[in-house]
Amino acid sequence: MGRFYKTKSVSNESQLQVFEIEESKPYLFRVINAATLYPFRVFIEGHPTLTIEASDGHDIVNDVHTASDKLDVESFIIYPGERFDFTLRAEQEPRSYLFVAETLEVLGSSVDEYHAAEAILHYANTPYIANPQKATSNRCSPSRPCITFNCPFLYYPLGTNRICWNFDKQAYGKDTESLFKEVYNVSKTLFFNFGFNGDLEFNPGSVNGHQFVFPAEPILYRSYDAARGCEKAKCGQDNVCQCTLYERVKKDVAYQLVLSNIGDGHPNSIPGIKLRNPPMKDTIVISSGGYVIIRLKASNPGPWFFHSQVDLHTTFGMAMVLHVGPYSASPMLENSQTCWISKTYSNW
After folding, report:
1. pLDDT digits over 111-134, tens only?
2. Are 147 and 72 in contact (CB under 8 A)?
3. Is the dihedral of CA 219, 220, 225, 231 positive or negative?
4. Counting beta carbons within 10 angstroms of the beta carbon of residue 320, is it exposed (0 to 12), middle (13 to 18) or buried (19 or more)?
5. Where are the beta strands (DSSP E) in 217-337?
6. Which of 12, 220, 221, 329 lies at a 20 to 30 A Cα distance from 92?
7. What b/e string do you get for 192-229 counting C-beta neighbours within 10 Å, with b at 16 or more?
8. pLDDT (0 to 100) of residue 344
9. What is the pLDDT of residue 149?
10. What percentage of the chain has pLDDT greater than the value 90?
């Protein structure tokens, strides 16, 4: 459910989803970005405080030496594939407000468009407006700046009175210390650069200069054959090649992955790493020119698709396969068109 804006202020007045709440009660929301391209900034009109509880199903807390470990923000940015849980306290004047997710697009002054997903937050026992006007932004001032969490950049422009918080400085995993012990010591560090080498318009997406080619047969049944494809692809440091890129890792071994987003070049050093209660995530943004360091224990055998969540980037070749364990551990069918035969049991 949602409405389309014909201009910056005029919509087609389609019906919106309604969340009815009662005054003075707390509510837990989960936001999922099921889009394939744009990130969104999520906020609730007239409610300047949202408490982030979790990301990708894992609890996170604040650690900036404040009186509370709550991650209180005015809004947050969510990328394709990410999920955020937040708590809202219904403490504002009882009426209807808009629940908004705006794209991060920077549209020129001559472009009369507005791109957002909307819903209605309606306080019970108050007049209901089926087609409210476009949301009014929450007030941000020098004395009370608005905090936005999960920014892909370090700061907003001067004069916006908006502060950026990120996973690397403000967010910590809740009770992840025991889990992190499994990856505290790693056996190897792997570097992967997800980027477009040169001009985006003329160069394909790639990982370490390898533009991913989807194999003609299922990877599950042809892991070894697909992995050999890059050996003959004439790959080089200054040449983007086309092949099905594989990286094989040993099962039940801890690895450190340094993921960068550099248009042209390769990472060669590791700056500071957060070793105290790092947050757990399965989807993370790598900002332009930036990097992310993750650690994992390769405990699940087989081939796993490792790719950009932006569908257009994956289509352009920004993907690879991370194969856990030996190739021989995956089923190898002589005929890739063979179908599994289901068995019927008489006692069912």
Report:
1. 999 999 999 999 999 999 989 999
2. yes
3. positive
4. buried
5. 241-243, 246-249, 254-260, 291-297, 302-307, 319-324
6. 12
7. bbbbbbeeeeebbbbbbbbbbbebeeebebbbeebbeb
8. 52
9. 97
10. 55
**Residue 3 identity:** R
Report how far residue 152's alpha carbon sits from residue 287's, in angstroms, rounded to the nearest whole number: 5
| pLDDT at residue 223, as a whole number | 61
> Are 194 and 260 a contacting pair, CB within 8 Å?
yes
Q: Distance (Å, rounded) from C-alpha 345 to C-alpha 348?
A: 6
CA distance 38 to 191: 26
User: What is the spatial distance between Cα 322 and Cα 250, in angstroms, rounded to a whole number?
Assistant: 11
In this predicted model, what pLDDT tens digit does every residue of 149-202 receive, in sequence order?
A: 999 888 999 999 999 999 988 898 887 677 788 898 999 999 999 988 765 555
Q: Cα separation of 226 and 245, whole Å?
A: 8
Q: DSSP letters of 68-88?
A: S--EEESEEEE-TT-EEEEEE
- At position 217, the amino acid (one-letter code) is E
pLDDT tens sequence across 296-325: 999 999 889 999 988 888 888 999 999 999
Q: Nearest CA to 79 among 261, 240, 296, 338?
A: 261
Q: Which domains does the chain have, with CATH numbers?
A: 17-173 (2.60.40.420), 177-329 (2.60.40.420)
Alpha carbon distance 211, 191 (integer Å): 16
- Please give the Cα distance from 9 to 112 (Å, whole number): 9
> Which neighbouring-strand residues pair with 47?
44
Tokens read off for 5: 């804006």
The pLDDT confidence band at residue 278, using thresholds 50, 70 and 90, is confident
Phi, psi of 313 (to 5 degrees): -65, -40
